[in-house]
Every structure is written in structure tokens, then in C-alpha cells.
């Protein structure tokens, strides 16, 4: 595992609408429909109540007007003083219109232009002393009476009364009272608004409560997503969910079962690699020893060339086996990867560098420790740099970096190891290995950290050195990067967190 994460993408197409939005839509849509239905029902109820109130006032006015008409023989005594007219027409905005007539069309009193009541069905006579409510419109010739545009809707009541005695042929009197329907509609709208405002507030409050409930209900799903997104590709530990819903618990159980199967497969492969490497070390070491003895005991040039090729192949194979073992020890599942201790990074780097000096001298390469870190001023005695990691693995990482530098820098080059503190990141130690060799193209800097990938075709490496370094550094919560050196060469920079005991208080 090289620690790189693949891009997150939908394997079966684009992602659809979020579950939270779908739940909110399906919960709020019925509320909206009910709110609209409630508004329509409220308007109808309000219009009905307004009609009842207006009809009651019209009936009262018609009976009061009828009481002002007193039969005398075959005629009528109209006792309708100006004060009574003023009472009926007191409200200019909602003026009552009235008309008294004696069918079939003998106008007696009031506004002659009021629309007549609907004719009774069949040949039946209209019911006496029974109010008949109906709607009409103001005719064109009635504009002056209502002091409003023609065609304005009206609400009317018609009351048929009998006057006169039996001896003198009783007659029928029609009393009509009308009022504009505009006030009725305004009253209905006012009732509707007064009821819809609290209903809308309740809908908004319910929407907020539903949204909060959806977020609370989906919070275990968000925690599961964070657990999956926040882990490294090599982390196959089971997902942890406390008090999750049953549906999500089943999903997490299925994922944990899959992770356990993958972890078992990976562990089996790693055990096989480790066991195979251990088994190969002994015969390879014996092969190297035998070829060395054979080279010393023969003088035949052709045989020595063949033995030398066998010896070189055995040396490369032993080096590959050692790197595979180091990589196995650096894996997250390895016990050694979790075994950390506090040690001085500078002293460790000095010891490892000293171990590689003899080989550097044989290759005519100048290898040494920098007098100080690249960012710190020179001091007589460099202070210790304490970190917390597995010292054996860190020695392997630095050895791989120095080995790569000596292998690829070339004869006559310089290789320098620096240890210090980062000037840009607080509480961070820096370990650098710099050479002035040909370097690695910037386009290959990320790729060379993959296993069995080499940055150059020269040499006889196997492409595991930088992969091992990256694995070890990441297990120590650090970072590693390649930086071009000036004027030429390559700098491998490792950044590691300082041990907690060395942090300032």
C-alpha cells in the first residue's frame, strides 16, 4: 500500500438527490397540499359565515321596513320618515337599497332598479312571509341609486307579505332589501387571512421541526460516512456505530464483514511474502558465500566472469529480500509499526551516516552530516531533536535514502544529511538527504513512491527503497517529499512531529 487514495466517484453513475432532501420533500408535500386544501375550505366557511351574517341583517332590515307599511282598507299607509331612511343609508360604503312593490310590478317605494327575485318553479305562488335570498347585479339604469358602477354584485332578500282583508280582495306586497357583495367578500378574505397567518406559521414551525428531525435521524449515517472517508486505504478496522438504527446497523455489519474478509486476504498475502523472504535469506546468503569462495579459488577469467554474474544476482536478490522484510515490518498491521519510543533523531542520523561512510569512500562520494540544519544558524554543539517513532524502522528509512543517493548520485558527487526543526511548521522535525547527482524529473516525484517503480533506468535497484521510506514515515505520522536541489540534484525531505516531552509549555 503506498498510501494514495483513489478519487471518490460514483461507480454506477452520478449521485442522485440526497436522502435528506427526499425525506423533506415527501414530508412537506402533503403538508403543502393540506395547507392549500385548508385555505380553500377556510375561505368557503368564511364566505358562508359572512353570508349568514349579511343575510340576517338583510332579513332584519326587510322586516323592519315591512313594519313601516300599514294596510288601510285596500291601500297602504307608508310610515317611513326621513330618520328611518337615514338609518338604512347610514353607511355610505355599504348602503342598503330597498324597494317595495305590489306584484305584478306596481312600484311603491325605494329603488326601482333592483333586480327581481327568481320566479318560483312551476305555477306555484311565492311563499308568504318567508325570506328568499338571492344574488344579482346592479343594472345599468341603477347606477345612480347605488352610486356605484353598473354590474356590481348584490346580495338581496325578498319577502312576500299579504295585506288587505278578505272582503276587499287581499293583495301581495314584495319587500326587497339589497346590499353590495363587496363587503361580504372583504369579510371572507379578512377571515381567511386571519386564519392562514397562524396556519402558515405552524407550517413553517413544523417544517423546521421536520428538518431537525431528519438531520437527527440521519446523523448515524453521517457518522458512518465520516468513518469511511477519514480512514487510510490500509485501515481495514471494523466500523464502530453506537446505538445506530437497525437498517444502518445491518449496512455497517455487511461492510464490516467485507472488511474482515479483505483484511484476512491481505494478511494471508503478507504472511506469505514475509515467510517466503525469511526462507530465501538463508539460501541466498549461502549462495553469496559459495560464489565468493569460488571467486577466490579460481583463476580462469571466463569462469570468474560467470561466477561474478552469479554473485551479483545473489546480492541483488538478497537486497530485494531484505527490503521486502523491511516493508513487511513497516505495514500497519505489523507489531513493529506500533512499537514507538522516544529517541534523538540527530544522533540516530549521525550513527547511520557513519555506518555508510566506508561504502561512500569506496565509491569516491563525499558523504557527511551537515554542520547544522539548513534553516538554523551554526552552533558548536547541535541540540538533540527528539521524536517518538520506531527507531529501527527510522534507521531503515534513512539507510534506504542514503543507499539510493550513493547508488544514483555518481562518482565524485556529494551526499549530505541534515537534521533540524522546520521553520514553517511548529513542533516539526526535518530530516533531509541531499545529493548533487542527476536527480529525478519533477513529473515522476509522486510516481517513484509506488512499489517497484524506479525513477531511472540506470543502476540495478528494485524500486522499493522510496516505497519503504514512505510507508515508515506515514506509520510515524510524518510526511515525505522530493524537492529539486540547487543547482542540481535531489533532496528527500522527511517531516516528523516532535515528541511531546520536547514541546514548549
In CATH's first tier, which class of the largest domain applies? Alpha Beta
User: How many strands in all?
Assistant: 14
Query: Helical segment tally?
Result: 10
User: Which term fits the overall shape?
Assistant: rod-shaped
Can you tell me the number of structural domains?
3
H/E element sequence: HEEHEEEHEEHHHHEHEEHEEHEE
The CATH superfamily of the largest domain appears as Histidine kinase-like ATPase, C-terminal domain
Range of strand content: 15-25%
**Helix share, percent:** 40-55%
CATH architecture of the largest domain: 2-Layer Sandwich
| Named CATH topology of the largest domain | Heat Shock Protein 90
Mean pLDDT: 77
- Helix/strand/pairing class, anyone? alpha+beta
Terminal CA distance: 37 Å
The biggest sheet, with number of strands, parallel, antiparallel or mixed sense and barrel status, is: 5 strands, antiparallel
Describe the structure in your own words.
The protein is 48% helix and 17% strand. Helix 1 packs antiparallel against helix 4 and helix 5 (246-297) runs antiparallel to helix 6. The chain has helices spanning 19-67, 82-88, 143-146, 182-229, 246-297, 301-330, 335-338, 345-362, 391-409, 465-475; strands at 69-72, 75-78, 97-102, 106-110, 132-137, 153-163, 171-180, 341-344, 366-369, 386-389, 414-421, 428-435, 479-484, 490-497. The chain has 505 residues and is α+β, with helices and mostly antiparallel strands. A 5-stranded antiparallel sheet has the order 4-3-7-6-5. A 5-stranded mixed sheet has the order 9-11-12-14-13. A two-stranded antiparallel ribbon has the order 1-2. The protein contains 10 helices and 14 strands.
Amino acid at each position: 500500500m503506498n498510501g494514495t487514495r483513489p478519487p471518490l466517484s460514483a461507480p454506477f453513475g452520478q449521485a442522485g438527490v440526497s436522502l435528506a432532501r427526499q425525506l423533506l420533500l415527501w414530508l412537506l408535500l402533503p403538508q403543502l397540499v393540506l395547507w392549500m386544501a385548508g385555505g380553500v375550505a377556510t375561505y368557503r366557511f368564511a364566505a358562508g359565515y359572512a353570508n349568514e351574517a349579511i343575510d340576517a341583517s338583510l332579513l332584519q332590515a326587510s322586516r323592519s321596513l315591512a313594519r313601516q307599511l300599514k294596510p288601510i282598507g285596500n291601500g297602504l299607509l307608508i310610515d317611513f320618515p326621513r330618520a328611518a331612511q337615514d338609518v338604512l343609508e347610514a353607511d355610505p360604503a355599504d348602503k342598503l337599497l330597498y324597494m317595495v312593490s305590489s306584484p305584478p310590478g306596481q312600484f311603491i317605494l325605494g329603488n326601482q332598479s333592483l333586480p327581481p327575485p327568481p320566479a318560483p318553479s312551476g305555477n306555484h305562488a311565492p311563499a308568504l312571509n318567508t325570506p328568499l335570498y338571492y344574488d344579482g347585479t346592479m343594472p345599468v339604469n341603477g347606477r345612480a341609486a347605488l352610486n356605484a358602477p353598473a354590474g356590481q354584485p348584490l346580495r338581496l332578500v325578498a319577502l312576500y307579505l299579504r295585506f288587505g282583508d278578505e272582503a276587499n280582495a287581499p293583495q301581495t306586497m314584495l319587500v326587497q332589501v339589497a346590499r353590495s357583495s363587496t363587503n361580504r367578500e372583504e369579510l371572507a378574505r379578512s377571515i381567511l387571512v386571519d386564519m392562514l397567518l397562524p396556519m402558515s406559521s405552524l407550517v413553517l414551525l413544523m417544517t423546521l421541526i421536520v428538518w431537525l428531525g431528519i438531520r437527527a435521524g440521519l446523523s448515524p449515517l453521517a457518522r458512518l460516512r465520516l468513518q469511511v472517508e477519514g480512514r487510510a486505504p490500509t485501515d481495514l478496522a471494523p466500523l464502530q456505530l453506537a446505538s445506530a438504527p437497525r437498517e444502518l446497523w445491518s449496512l455497517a455489519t455487511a461492510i464490516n464483514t467485507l472488511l474482515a474478509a479483505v483484511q484476512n486476504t491481505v494478511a494471508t498475502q503478507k504472511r506469505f511474502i514475509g515467510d517466503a523472504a525469511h526462507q530465501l535469506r538463508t539460501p541466498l546468503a549461502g549462495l553469496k558465500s559459495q560464489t565468493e569462495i569460488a571467486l577466490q579459488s579460481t583463476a580462469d577469467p571466463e569462469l570468474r566472469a560467470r561466477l561474478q554474474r552469479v554473485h551479483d544476482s545473489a546480492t541483488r536478490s538478497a537486497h530485494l529480500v531484505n527490503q521486502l522484510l523491511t516493508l513487511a515490518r513497516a505495514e500497519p498491521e505489523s507489531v513493529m509499526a506500533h512499537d514507538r519510543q522516544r529517541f534523538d533523531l540527530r544522533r540516530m542520523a549521525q550513527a547511520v551516516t557513519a555506518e555508510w561512510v566506508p561504502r561512500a569512500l569506496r565509491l569516491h562520494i563525499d558523504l557527511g552530516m551537515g554542520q547544522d540544519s539548513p534553516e538554523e544558524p551554526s552552533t558548536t554543539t547541535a541540540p538533540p531533536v527528539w521524536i517518538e517513532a520506531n527507531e529501527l524502522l527510522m534507521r531503515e528509512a534513512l539507510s534506504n535514502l542514503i543507499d539510493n543517493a550513493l547508488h544514483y548520485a555518481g562518482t565524485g558527487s556529494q551526499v549530505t544529511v541534515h537534521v533540524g526543526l522546520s521553520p514553517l511548521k511548529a513542533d516539526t522535525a526535518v530530516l533531509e538527504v541531499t545529493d548533487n547527482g542527476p536527480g529525478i524529473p519533477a513529473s515522476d516525484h509522486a510516481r517513484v513512491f509506488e512499489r517497484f517503480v524506479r525513477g531511472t533506468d540506470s543502476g540495478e535497484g528494485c524500486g522499493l527503497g522510496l516505497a519503504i521510506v514512505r510507508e515508515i514515515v506515514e506509520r510515524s505520522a510524518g510526511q515525505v517529499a522530493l524537492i529539486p536541489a540547487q543547482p542540481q540534484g535531489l533532496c528527500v525531505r522527511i517531516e516528523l512531529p516532535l515528541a511531546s516531552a520536547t514541546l514548549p509549555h
